Amino acid sequence: MKTLILTTAALALSAGLASAQTVRLGTEGAYPPYNFINDAGEVAGFERELGDKLCELAEKTCEWVTNDWDSIIPNLVSGNYDAIIAGMSITPEREEVVAFSQNYTPPSPSAYAALSADVDLENGVIAAQTGTIQANHVVDTGATLLEFPNPDETVAAVRNGEADAAMADKDFLIPVVEGDPDMVFVGEDIPLGGGIGMAFRKSDPELREAFTAAIQTMKDDGSLNELIIKWLGEDSPRF
What we know:
Layout: H1 2-19, E1 23-27, E2 30-31, E3 35-37, E4 43-44, H2 46-57, E5 62-66, H3 72-77, E6 83-84, H4 92-95, E7 99-105, E8 109-114, E9 125-129, H5 133-141, E10 144-148, H6 151-159, E11 165-169, H7 170-178, E12 184-191, E13 196-200, H8 205-221, H9 223-232
Parallel strand pairs: 1-5, 1-6, 9-10, 9-11
Antiparallel strand pairs: 2-3, 3-4, 6-13, 7-13, 8-11, 8-12
């Protein structure tokens, strides 16, 4: 009996320690206003503020980890962090590899930005970030896709003449276009994906459920919409 009691106590202590372990949140740190590195060298933006609040609601201690976009899912699966919160749209292809929380933004439009309103989007060269729903869409249109590892390079490709236009989330492109008198939006906005969500390993259902519940709490009390307006603007879709 004594051995059983000690074993039970040890298991309880172990479970307590496990629940108190730090949750590592992986992000890109290069996709403003969703996530970026500020002047202090820290992760900032919509998803930093959102992630910190979700950790508080889920009663988790969290730390932030940055990772290049093109390997962000493989490094989640291999255990370098416990969740992705990085402007990642929910798609069937990604759901084959990871498990998503419910979305924390509604599906928002993607857009093209160029130096001329006369760009041929169907037959031109279009820059997009590697591994994104925008890159997949460019391929589907029949245009020539020019891929880059981060979104800033897609815009640079337009400015230096390598590409006719860049395609990305409109929330990312709005400050780019507003801050450059030579850059304009071209064509129609295009809704892609099922909104943005957190991604988890399929082997961590309890962690995913904890953050999904926290997202729902923020939807219910209106605080998620407040963050969307603060960081993504009044015109960004919200709940």
